[in-house]
Amino acid sequence: SFSTFVPIMHGCNNFCTYCIVPYVRGRECSRNVSDILKELDALNKLNVREITLIGQNVNSYKGVSSDGKFVDFAQLLTIIANHLKQTNSKIEWVRFMSSHPKDFTEDVIDVIAKESVICRHIHLPVQHGSTSILKAMNRRYSREDYLSLVESIKSKIPEVSLTTDIMMGFPGETEFDVQQTLDLMEKVKYESAMMYFYNPREGTPASKMEQIPVEIKKERLQRVIDLQLIHTQLQMKQRVGKVEKVLVESISRDDKSELLGQTERHEKVAFKASENLIGNFVQVRILDLNGNTFKGEIVE
Asked: Among 43, 89, 250, 259, which residue's Cβ finds the most Cβ atoms within 10 Å?
């Protein structure tokens, strides 16, 4: 009730060769700015504290403002941030997903760096670390393009948390392509990743390509998972000792005396506190790491 999704667009124009979305959801269509702001006002009255702007590719948002001008995604983020300030909204965190690297502009990076209401967590799906596979996927960026984007993000938002999607076993993938992906992961060091092997979708171009045996897909995927587990632990251990703003979400399933919340970077934190804090922001000192969940204590 206090954390919800706000659609800003639907459909997709990208036609990645593995994806069925453009065929079933149609071309991109963006909501008007005024409609989005009205929804934020309604959610504020319902005591919502966190929103996630969603669309198949939020970076290609192109809505219309009340004065009839086209608004891109960076401008929309600025408008939302200013609106939340001006209305003294209870909404303190704004997230967004999904992002397409080819449309992630410097303007968007600058807005995130400037506006504190926009969370320092970016989910930036790379899908693969090999330029040749990215081309076969019709992703329309190279390995070098992606790494340059990451470098720009990290330079302007040093505290950013980057997460991603990685698909292994795409048709035509070689051992060299696998090594390129592992190398890209070493360079970026994601905090977490959604990892899976390619599964053909009927009606897509990739489903007609020569397929890699499932056993090979699984073996390659396991190497990616093993490396990401190492990176996740390294990234999260660096957080121990820090004090973080946390949105309290629920009672912990593992320990009923603890509450579970998430940080701005989308990390889970368990700590002892009264359940009347659910739905509120608190300051929590990170004491330890248990798996992929932090253990912490309330800071008065």
From this structure: 259
